[in-house]
Amino acid sequence: MFVETCIAPVNIALIKYWGKRHEELILPINDSLSVTLNTDEMCAKTTAAASASFKDNVMWLNGEKVPFEQNARLMRCVKELQQLATAKGKLKFPIEWKLHIASRNNFPTAAGLASSAAGYACLVYTLAQLYGVEKEELTTIARQGSGSACRSLHGGFVRWHMGTRNDGSDSIGSPVVSAEHWQDFHIIILVVNDSRKKTSSTSGMKRAVETSDLLTHRAQHCVPQRIAAVIDAIKNHDFPKLAEITMRDSNQFHAIALDTFPPCAYMNDVSHAIVDFVHAFNKEAGEIKLAYTFDAGPNACLFLLEKDVSAALAAIQNSFPNDAGDSVEYVKGIP
Ligand code: PMV
Protein backbone atom coordinates (compact mmCIF):
# COMPACT_ATOMS: atom_id res chain seq x y z
CA MET A 1 0.00 0.00 0.00
CA PHE A 2 1.14 3.56 -0.77
CA VAL A 3 -0.16 6.40 1.44
CA GLU A 4 0.26 10.20 1.48
CA THR A 5 -1.22 12.85 3.82
CA CYS A 6 -1.16 16.62 3.18
CA ILE A 7 -2.84 19.79 4.40
CA ALA A 8 -3.92 22.83 2.33
CA PRO A 9 -5.16 26.19 3.60
CA VAL A 10 -8.22 28.27 2.75
CA ASN A 11 -7.85 31.34 0.53
CA ILE A 12 -10.00 34.46 0.70
CA ALA A 13 -10.64 36.47 -2.48
CA LEU A 14 -10.14 40.25 -2.45
CA ILE A 15 -11.31 40.37 -6.08
CA LYS A 16 -13.94 37.66 -6.50
CA TYR A 17 -14.30 34.96 -9.12
CA TRP A 18 -17.97 34.84 -10.16
CA GLY A 19 -19.15 33.39 -13.47
CA LYS A 20 -17.79 30.74 -15.82
CA ARG A 21 -17.31 30.82 -19.58
CA HIS A 22 -16.85 27.01 -19.62
CA GLU A 23 -18.71 24.90 -17.07
CA GLU A 24 -16.75 21.64 -17.28
CA LEU A 25 -13.23 23.03 -17.54
CA ILE A 26 -14.15 25.72 -14.98
CA LEU A 27 -12.89 28.68 -16.99
CA PRO A 28 -13.85 32.02 -15.39
CA ILE A 29 -15.07 35.23 -17.04
CA ASN A 30 -12.67 37.37 -14.98
CA ASP A 31 -9.32 37.26 -13.19
CA SER A 32 -9.49 37.01 -9.40
CA LEU A 33 -7.02 37.66 -6.59
CA SER A 34 -6.82 36.16 -3.11
CA VAL A 35 -4.76 35.82 0.02
CA THR A 36 -3.98 32.34 1.33
CA LEU A 37 -4.33 31.86 5.08
CA ASN A 38 -1.47 30.39 7.04
CA THR A 39 -3.24 28.89 10.01
CA ASP A 40 -3.87 25.34 11.18
CA GLU A 41 -7.30 26.53 12.31
CA MET A 42 -8.68 26.71 8.76
CA CYS A 43 -7.39 24.03 6.45
CA ALA A 44 -8.24 20.77 4.75
CA LYS A 45 -6.34 17.56 5.55
CA THR A 46 -6.41 14.68 3.08
CA THR A 47 -5.02 11.15 3.23
CA ALA A 48 -4.94 9.18 -0.02
CA ALA A 49 -4.00 5.51 -0.28
CA ALA A 50 -3.62 3.13 -3.25
CA SER A 51 -3.51 -0.61 -2.78
CA ALA A 52 -3.79 -3.82 -4.82
CA SER A 53 -6.31 -5.05 -2.24
CA PHE A 54 -8.82 -2.15 -2.62
CA LYS A 55 -11.88 -3.31 -4.60
CA ASP A 56 -13.43 0.12 -5.25
CA ASN A 57 -12.54 3.79 -5.22
CA VAL A 58 -13.93 5.19 -1.95
CA MET A 59 -13.99 8.71 -0.53
CA TRP A 60 -14.93 10.01 2.92
CA LEU A 61 -15.53 13.72 3.56
CA ASN A 62 -15.56 14.69 7.24
CA GLY A 63 -16.07 11.01 8.14
CA GLU A 64 -19.00 10.40 5.79
CA LYS A 65 -18.84 8.33 2.63
CA VAL A 66 -19.46 10.50 -0.45
CA PRO A 67 -19.87 9.53 -4.14
CA PHE A 68 -16.56 9.00 -5.94
CA GLU A 69 -17.02 7.76 -9.52
CA GLN A 70 -20.33 9.64 -9.84
CA ASN A 71 -18.53 12.89 -8.96
CA ALA A 72 -17.47 14.20 -12.39
CA ARG A 73 -15.14 16.89 -11.01
CA LEU A 74 -13.33 14.49 -8.70
CA MET A 75 -12.92 11.94 -11.52
CA ARG A 76 -11.58 14.63 -13.85
CA CYS A 77 -8.87 15.56 -11.32
CA VAL A 78 -7.96 11.90 -10.70
CA LYS A 79 -7.81 11.08 -14.45
CA GLU A 80 -5.66 14.15 -15.25
CA LEU A 81 -3.18 13.24 -12.51
CA GLN A 82 -3.07 9.61 -13.64
CA GLN A 83 -2.40 10.72 -17.24
CA LEU A 84 0.42 13.03 -16.14
CA ALA A 85 1.98 10.33 -13.98
CA THR A 86 1.74 7.76 -16.78
CA ALA A 87 3.23 10.19 -19.34
CA LYS A 88 6.15 10.92 -17.03
CA GLY A 89 6.70 7.27 -16.18
CA LYS A 90 6.85 8.16 -12.49
CA LEU A 91 4.25 5.71 -11.18
CA LYS A 92 5.28 3.75 -8.12
CA PHE A 93 2.39 1.27 -8.53
CA PRO A 94 0.00 0.11 -11.30
CA ILE A 95 -2.40 2.85 -12.44
CA GLU A 96 -5.35 0.43 -12.10
CA TRP A 97 -5.00 0.28 -8.31
CA LYS A 98 -8.08 1.71 -6.61
CA LEU A 99 -7.93 4.69 -4.26
CA HIS A 100 -9.20 5.34 -0.76
CA ILE A 101 -9.33 9.06 0.08
CA ALA A 102 -10.28 10.60 3.43
CA SER A 103 -10.59 14.37 3.64
CA ARG A 104 -11.48 16.59 6.58
CA ASN A 105 -12.04 20.34 6.96
CA ASN A 106 -11.53 21.79 10.42
CA PHE A 107 -14.03 24.59 9.67
CA PRO A 108 -17.64 24.71 8.37
CA THR A 109 -18.05 22.99 4.99
CA ALA A 110 -19.96 24.84 2.22
CA ALA A 111 -20.78 27.80 4.48
CA GLY A 112 -19.10 30.32 2.18
CA LEU A 113 -15.71 29.88 3.85
CA ALA A 114 -13.81 28.56 0.84
CA SER A 115 -14.01 24.93 2.00
CA SER A 116 -14.01 23.58 -1.56
CA ALA A 117 -10.92 25.66 -2.40
CA ALA A 118 -8.90 24.12 0.42
CA GLY A 119 -10.52 20.70 -0.15
CA TYR A 120 -9.70 20.36 -3.85
CA ALA A 121 -6.26 21.98 -3.52
CA CYS A 122 -5.49 19.42 -0.84
CA LEU A 123 -6.94 16.48 -2.75
CA VAL A 124 -5.01 17.31 -5.93
CA TYR A 125 -1.75 17.93 -4.06
CA THR A 126 -2.06 14.71 -2.04
CA LEU A 127 -2.83 12.59 -5.13
CA ALA A 128 0.05 14.28 -6.97
CA GLN A 129 2.38 13.17 -4.17
CA LEU A 130 0.98 9.65 -4.39
CA TYR A 131 1.43 9.53 -8.19
CA GLY A 132 4.79 11.37 -8.15
CA VAL A 133 3.60 14.41 -10.19
CA GLU A 134 5.42 17.76 -9.89
CA LYS A 135 3.81 20.75 -8.11
CA GLU A 136 4.10 23.28 -10.98
CA GLU A 137 1.54 21.48 -13.10
CA LEU A 138 -1.19 21.33 -10.50
CA THR A 139 -3.16 24.60 -10.57
CA THR A 140 -4.94 23.77 -13.86
CA ILE A 141 -5.99 20.42 -12.36
CA ALA A 142 -7.17 21.81 -8.99
CA ARG A 143 -9.15 24.46 -10.93
CA GLN A 144 -11.22 21.67 -12.50
CA GLY A 145 -12.26 20.46 -9.03
CA SER A 146 -13.27 23.88 -7.72
CA GLY A 147 -12.23 27.08 -9.50
CA SER A 148 -10.91 28.90 -6.45
CA ALA A 149 -8.82 25.82 -5.49
CA CYS A 150 -6.18 26.85 -8.03
CA ARG A 151 -5.35 29.78 -5.72
CA SER A 152 -4.85 27.63 -2.58
CA LEU A 153 -1.81 25.83 -4.04
CA HIS A 154 0.30 28.95 -3.42
CA GLY A 155 0.87 30.98 -0.24
CA GLY A 156 0.73 34.79 0.08
CA PHE A 157 -1.25 36.84 -2.45
CA VAL A 158 -2.28 34.84 -5.52
CA ARG A 159 -3.81 35.79 -8.88
CA TRP A 160 -5.94 33.43 -10.94
CA HIS A 161 -5.46 34.43 -14.58
CA MET A 162 -8.66 33.74 -16.48
CA GLY A 163 -6.62 32.88 -19.57
CA THR A 164 -7.76 33.04 -23.18
CA ARG A 165 -7.18 29.51 -24.49
CA ASN A 166 -10.16 27.21 -25.00
CA ASP A 167 -8.42 24.22 -23.39
CA GLY A 168 -7.80 26.17 -20.14
CA SER A 169 -4.04 25.57 -20.20
CA ASP A 170 -3.39 29.27 -19.42
CA SER A 171 -6.09 29.58 -16.74
CA ILE A 172 -3.70 29.23 -13.83
CA GLY A 173 -3.07 30.41 -10.28
CA SER A 174 0.25 32.22 -9.83
CA PRO A 175 1.81 34.02 -6.85
CA VAL A 176 1.79 37.86 -6.77
CA VAL A 177 3.99 38.17 -3.68
CA SER A 178 4.90 35.65 -0.99
CA ALA A 179 3.48 35.87 2.54
CA GLU A 180 6.81 37.29 3.78
CA HIS A 181 6.23 40.44 1.71
CA TRP A 182 3.52 41.74 4.08
CA GLN A 183 4.08 40.19 7.47
CA ASP A 184 1.86 42.51 9.50
CA PHE A 185 -1.19 41.84 7.29
CA HIS A 186 -3.83 40.06 9.40
CA ILE A 187 -7.17 38.38 8.83
CA ILE A 188 -10.07 37.91 11.25
CA ILE A 189 -12.91 35.58 10.25
CA LEU A 190 -16.28 36.30 11.81
CA VAL A 191 -18.44 33.17 11.71
CA VAL A 192 -22.02 34.43 11.59
CA ASN A 193 -23.65 31.18 10.57
CA ASP A 194 -21.92 27.86 9.95
CA SER A 195 -24.75 26.02 8.18
CA ARG A 196 -24.62 25.12 4.47
CA LYS A 197 -25.44 27.95 2.07
CA LYS A 198 -28.84 27.85 0.31
CA THR A 199 -27.50 28.28 -3.23
CA SER A 200 -24.17 26.64 -4.12
CA SER A 201 -21.61 28.83 -5.86
CA THR A 202 -21.93 26.61 -8.95
CA SER A 203 -25.66 27.26 -9.38
CA GLY A 204 -25.45 30.89 -8.19
CA MET A 205 -22.79 31.61 -10.83
CA LYS A 206 -24.64 29.78 -13.59
CA ARG A 207 -27.81 31.72 -12.85
CA ALA A 208 -25.85 35.01 -12.72
CA VAL A 209 -24.28 34.34 -16.15
CA GLU A 210 -27.75 33.65 -17.55
CA THR A 211 -29.68 36.51 -15.94
CA SER A 212 -27.54 39.33 -14.48
CA ASP A 213 -26.77 42.39 -16.61
CA LEU A 214 -24.38 43.70 -13.97
CA LEU A 215 -22.15 40.62 -14.22
CA THR A 216 -20.71 41.42 -17.67
CA HIS A 217 -20.23 45.06 -16.73
CA ARG A 218 -18.20 44.03 -13.67
CA ALA A 219 -16.09 41.45 -15.54
CA GLN A 220 -15.24 43.76 -18.43
CA HIS A 221 -15.12 47.24 -16.91
CA CYS A 222 -14.38 46.90 -13.18
CA VAL A 223 -12.27 43.82 -12.49
CA PRO A 224 -9.29 44.57 -14.82
CA GLN A 225 -8.68 47.99 -13.18
CA ARG A 226 -9.24 46.57 -9.68
CA ILE A 227 -6.76 43.74 -10.21
CA ALA A 228 -4.09 46.20 -11.39
CA ALA A 229 -4.82 48.63 -8.53
CA VAL A 230 -4.86 45.98 -5.80
CA ILE A 231 -1.56 44.49 -7.01
CA ASP A 232 -0.11 48.00 -6.86
CA ALA A 233 -1.48 48.43 -3.30
CA ILE A 234 -0.02 45.06 -2.23
CA LYS A 235 3.41 45.83 -3.69
CA ASN A 236 3.43 49.27 -1.99
CA HIS A 237 1.96 48.07 1.33
CA ASP A 238 -0.88 50.56 0.78
CA PHE A 239 -3.48 49.17 3.20
CA PRO A 240 -6.22 51.87 2.79
CA LYS A 241 -6.17 51.42 -0.99
CA LEU A 242 -6.31 47.60 -0.74
CA ALA A 243 -9.12 47.87 1.82
CA GLU A 244 -11.30 50.17 -0.27
CA ILE A 245 -10.93 48.05 -3.44
CA THR A 246 -11.69 44.86 -1.48
CA MET A 247 -14.86 46.29 0.11
CA ARG A 248 -16.09 47.72 -3.20
CA ASP A 249 -15.57 44.39 -4.93
CA SER A 250 -17.38 42.45 -2.20
CA ASN A 251 -20.30 44.90 -2.38
CA GLN A 252 -20.46 44.60 -6.15
CA PHE A 253 -20.32 40.81 -6.06
CA HIS A 254 -23.32 40.73 -3.67
CA ALA A 255 -25.13 43.32 -5.83
CA ILE A 256 -24.73 40.85 -8.73
CA ALA A 257 -26.06 38.05 -6.56
CA LEU A 258 -29.16 40.19 -5.97
CA ASP A 259 -29.32 41.18 -9.66
CA THR A 260 -29.55 37.44 -10.48
CA PHE A 261 -33.06 36.27 -11.22
CA PRO A 262 -34.37 34.74 -8.95
CA PRO A 263 -31.92 36.53 -6.60
CA CYS A 264 -29.31 34.90 -4.37
CA ALA A 265 -29.14 36.56 -0.94
CA TYR A 266 -25.95 35.31 0.64
CA MET A 267 -25.52 38.01 3.29
CA ASN A 268 -27.93 38.25 6.25
CA ASP A 269 -28.80 41.00 8.75
CA VAL A 270 -25.74 40.26 10.88
CA SER A 271 -23.51 40.47 7.77
CA HIS A 272 -24.97 43.90 7.00
CA ALA A 273 -24.46 44.94 10.64
CA ILE A 274 -20.78 43.97 10.24
CA VAL A 275 -20.50 46.14 7.11
CA ASP A 276 -21.95 49.12 9.05
CA PHE A 277 -19.65 48.35 11.98
CA VAL A 278 -16.53 48.39 9.76
CA HIS A 279 -17.47 51.72 8.16
CA ALA A 280 -18.21 53.23 11.60
CA PHE A 281 -14.86 51.88 12.94
CA ASN A 282 -12.98 53.49 10.03
CA LYS A 283 -14.86 56.78 10.40
CA GLU A 284 -13.99 56.94 14.08
CA ALA A 285 -10.32 56.19 13.26
CA GLY A 286 -10.26 58.92 10.59
CA GLU A 287 -8.71 56.48 8.09
CA ILE A 288 -9.41 53.04 6.60
CA LYS A 289 -7.97 50.53 9.07
CA LEU A 290 -10.38 47.65 8.54
CA ALA A 291 -11.85 45.97 5.43
CA TYR A 292 -14.60 43.38 5.05
CA THR A 293 -15.23 40.85 2.34
CA PHE A 294 -18.01 38.24 2.08
CA ASP A 295 -17.97 35.11 -0.11
CA ALA A 296 -21.13 33.18 -1.05
CA GLY A 297 -22.38 33.11 2.53
CA PRO A 298 -23.06 35.39 5.53
CA ASN A 299 -19.63 35.02 7.20
CA ALA A 300 -17.22 37.96 7.16
CA CYS A 301 -13.48 38.06 6.52
CA LEU A 302 -11.85 41.18 7.90
CA PHE A 303 -8.43 42.43 6.79
CA LEU A 304 -6.32 44.71 8.97
CA LEU A 305 -2.76 45.43 10.06
CA GLU A 306 -1.25 43.83 13.16
CA LYS A 307 -1.09 47.16 15.04
CA ASP A 308 -4.91 47.47 14.85
CA VAL A 309 -5.85 43.88 15.86
CA SER A 310 -6.44 44.54 19.59
CA ALA A 311 -8.57 47.66 19.01
CA ALA A 312 -10.60 45.88 16.30
CA LEU A 313 -11.21 42.78 18.44
CA ALA A 314 -12.28 44.93 21.41
CA ALA A 315 -14.71 46.85 19.18
CA ILE A 316 -16.07 43.61 17.67
CA GLN A 317 -16.72 42.15 21.13
CA ASN A 318 -18.38 45.38 22.15
CA SER A 319 -20.68 45.52 19.10
CA PHE A 320 -21.34 41.77 18.86
CA PRO A 321 -21.26 40.45 22.44
CA ASN A 322 -21.41 36.67 22.64
CA ASP A 323 -24.62 36.60 24.67
CA ALA A 324 -26.54 38.70 22.12
CA GLY A 325 -28.68 37.16 19.38
CA ASP A 326 -26.45 38.49 16.61
CA SER A 327 -23.20 37.21 18.08
CA VAL A 328 -20.25 36.19 15.95
CA GLU A 329 -17.36 33.82 16.61
CA TYR A 330 -13.97 34.81 15.33
CA VAL A 331 -10.82 33.12 14.12
CA LYS A 332 -7.58 35.06 13.75
CA GLY A 333 -5.23 34.32 10.89
CA ILE A 334 -2.22 35.60 9.03
CA PRO A 335 -1.25 34.98 5.42
O1 PMV B 1 -14.53 27.88 -6.39
P1 PMV B 1 -15.96 28.00 -5.98
O2 PMV B 1 -16.88 27.32 -6.94
O3 PMV B 1 -16.17 27.57 -4.55
O4 PMV B 1 -16.38 29.56 -6.06
C1 PMV B 1 -15.87 30.52 -5.17
C2 PMV B 1 -16.57 31.81 -5.33
C3 PMV B 1 -16.28 32.85 -4.28
O5 PMV B 1 -15.78 32.27 -3.11
C4 PMV B 1 -17.57 33.59 -3.93
C5 PMV B 1 -15.32 33.92 -4.79
C6 PMV B 1 -13.86 33.53 -4.88
O6 PMV B 1 -13.18 34.06 -5.75
O7 PMV B 1 -13.38 32.74 -4.04
UniProtKB/TrEMBL annotation:
Mvd1 C-terminal domain segment(s): 187-335
Pfam family, one: MDD_C
GO molecular function, one term: ATP binding
Pathway annotation from the record: Steroid biosynthesis; cholesterol biosynthesis
EC code: 4.1.1.33
Keyword list, A-Z: ATP-binding, Cholesterol biosynthesis, Cholesterol metabolism, Lipid biosynthesis, Lipid metabolism, Lyase, Nucleotide-binding, Steroid biosynthesis, Steroid metabolism, Sterol biosynthesis, Sterol metabolism
GO cellular component annotations of the record: cytosol
Protein known as: Diphosphomevalonate decarboxylase
Lineage of producing organism: Eukaryota, Metazoa, Ecdysozoa, Arthropoda, Hexapoda
